[in-house]
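dumping the sequnces here before i forget
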Amino acid sequence: MMRQAGRYLPEYREVRQKVSFMELCRSADLATEVSLQPFRRFDPDGVIFFSDILVPVAAMGARVEFGDGGPELPEPVRTSAAIEKLHRFDPASEVPFTGEILSRLKREVGGRAAVLGFCGAPWTLASYLVEGGASRSFAALKTMMGREPGTLRRLLDLLADVASDVLSYQLASGADAVQLFDTWAGELAAEDYREWALPAVARAIAGIRRAQAPVVLYVNGCGHLIEAMAESGADVLSIDWRVPLSDARRRAPGRGLQGNLDPGLLLGEPEEVARRTGAMLEETGGQGHVVNLGHGVLPGSRLECVEAFFDAARRPVRAAALPVTA
Amino acid sequence: MMRQAGRYLPEYREVRQKVSFMELCRSADLATEVSLQPFRRFDPDGVIFFSDILVPVAAMGARVEFGDGGPELPEPVRTSAAIEKLHRFDPASEVPFTGEILSRLKREVGGRAAVLGFCGAPWTLASYLVEGGASRSFAALKTMMGREPGTLRRLLDLLADVASDVLSYQLASGADAVQLFDTWAGELAAEDYREWALPAVARAIAGIRRAQAPVVLYVNGCGHLIEAMAESGADVLSIDWRVPLSDARRRAPGRGLQGNLDPGLLLGEPEEVARRTGAMLEETGGQGHVVNLGHGVLPGSRLECVEAFFDAARRPVRAAALPVTA
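..and the predicted 3d for all of it:
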């Protein structure tokens, strides 16, 4: 479940009362503990290591602050000179706690659940860096795209290489699979996605030292991008709740799918969660399908709804309506 | 052009320095003046009256404040009791300035350009009321959807009737066509859109006293909703920049289309704006197509880019690739 460890869990909120968000990310003890909280409670097939997609951005030399209103980067990166100050880094030296968390998780759950790593995709990390935080219009990024394309290209290349390094380190440390979050790439028309976000994420994926470990690519608002995502090199496409899984299967033959329950349903009634999770599984027959939400769990999600989601996901399903390969 | 009058124009910013946003909306003199500013500068085919979709919400009895960070409703509507305090109203008594602006615009540009009215669609107005402002997750609204469906249904019905009244008054006052903005309905999976947002907007459209005046329905992030939008009763579907027009035409035969250039392109270079506007027109052959942006103009848009957009929209086009009716 995306954002599986988090504020909807009372045991997580208890830990968070004592430390800041960044302290939690950097403490191997506490981050391992909160990563395991949902595993103990719901017995999922996967354990996601607790971290944030901006941890590598901070390690590149950017100032990142986590406030109550989401992350802020008080010195937005909008010029060549600002990009020059960012640097590729060795994860084992700069973010050793991420490797430590993953190797501990591997020891704790290895064999019973997959250990999952992740990283922000270049386009999404560039959004934060250029906008200085979350954005609705992406005006600064689109200005750079239109007027300083070479500068943006250089930033995306750098972020792609950082993502490759980070994910390679996560896999070497114990992750069984990794996911790239391109949360904001759904903002782009398909033509612009192919020009900007796709080459960058494809470069990141191509650079991962991964043997056979699967790579998952998530894009929020990806209904118009399925065919393009299938060209990224990712093994599994993680799609948001607005794209029917049957539609995605037709458009991305041979790719695994992940998703895609509306996380907003977990604020409602368990019966409806069970019904919708079952309907989702009937669309794929559970084959080539990693059952998940279509976006992260929301704070305020009801524990009985999360329970209903995992219960419904474990029920046997009928044969797939559409084959995995065309 | 959606949000045609606004902060990207120096002459608008000059007016706004002197008055607050709400004062501008309520002053027939000033609102007429700023509505005409883009008409004088770019000679478009349509003049949109200056107002805000929350003007009717304030007239229903809700507290609405316009700050720099967008509108805020400090008393969110989340209970039956809170909904009881809201009321349907007579636009001629409560928002007479909207009628006055439209009748003046009709006198000023009638015959040379269409005068356009608008209103928020029920789902989007409910989002603001329930969330207390703009939202990313719509957690409060989805909680109400899941746990208090009858309450939400009552709120949507009330908002639909208000929208009908408001748009009927705008047409009676001089508007030639009206648009419903369902900006946030693209958040919903198709199943939920059909259950919640669509019946409410269809009720609003059915209730408009309009003779033959066309009704336009805009939904941001509507790629998965085109077929459902075509069942709303709207004559024209206004689509965001991520849906190819040719795709929308196939999926909504017999409906006019409006859109859909990415407004972010207006931050870039005029040559690219001209190229992309031309490509958009080639998709429809300009037939049954109201050339527009896929969302509102962004502050910071370059005047030379806006100029390039209008110029390209006026160029003759080849025949349509796909017929308007199937």
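Residues 149-173 of chain A form the longest helix (25 residues).
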